[in-house]
Design a protein that fits this description.
It is a single chain. This protein has three helices and six strands. The chain is of the alpha/beta class and 155 residues long. The longest helix is centred in the N-terminal third of the chain and has 21 residues. It is globular. The chain starts with 8 loop residues before the first helix and ends in an 18-residue tail after the last strand.
């Protein structure tokens, strides 16, 4: 005769409770995906915009050109303040009717004077915006406004 272990209902519920608590703690403690994107981007900088080229049709590819006015991180040692750069990102026009597309907002690029951005190397001369991680800012600042070490900050 084979003996089988028996479990009391209290033991099963205790184990399930511990499992759910562990999952909840991990979910609360895990940083949001945008936080990880900002932490792993090669470049974090503020840019004075000189030009924004928008596509003829949306969604499309926006190309933003400007001058680096603050450089907070450069993992490749290839950028410097005062350097002209450009980046590309998929973009769309957001209207109350269309709602957010999840893409970068083309109208913001067309009207902004300064951006704080997280970039990665792109194809050719243009850099690539790190998963839409940018913030329109009024002017350059000494310290970053879109910090990488704070979960919950939206850029």
């Amino acid at each position: 005769m084979v003996s089988r272990p028996t479990f009391s209902n209290g033991l099963v519920f205790s184990a399930l409770g511990a499992l759910f608590t562990a999952v909840a703690v991990v979910a609360i403690a895990a940083p949001p995906p945008n936080y990880a994107i900002r932490l792993t981007a090669d470049f974090h900088l503020q840019l004075e915009i000189s030009d924004a080229i928008l596509p003829d049709d949306f969604p499309g590819q926006c190309r933003v050109s400007g001058t680096v006015v603050r450089l907070f991180r450069d993992r490749t040692d290839t950028l410097s303040e005062g350097q002209a750069i450009q980046f590309e990102t998929p973009c769309a026009i957001t209207t109350p009717e269309s709602g957010s597309s999840g893409l970068s907002d083309a109208d913001e690029f067309a009207t902004a004077e300064y951006l704080e951005v997280f970039l990665n190397p792109g194809l050719g001369e243009a850099y690539a915006l790190a998963s839409h991680q940018y913030m329109v800012i009024k002017n350059a600042t000494e310290d970053p406004l879109c910090e990488t070490d704070k979960a919950g900050v939206k850029c």
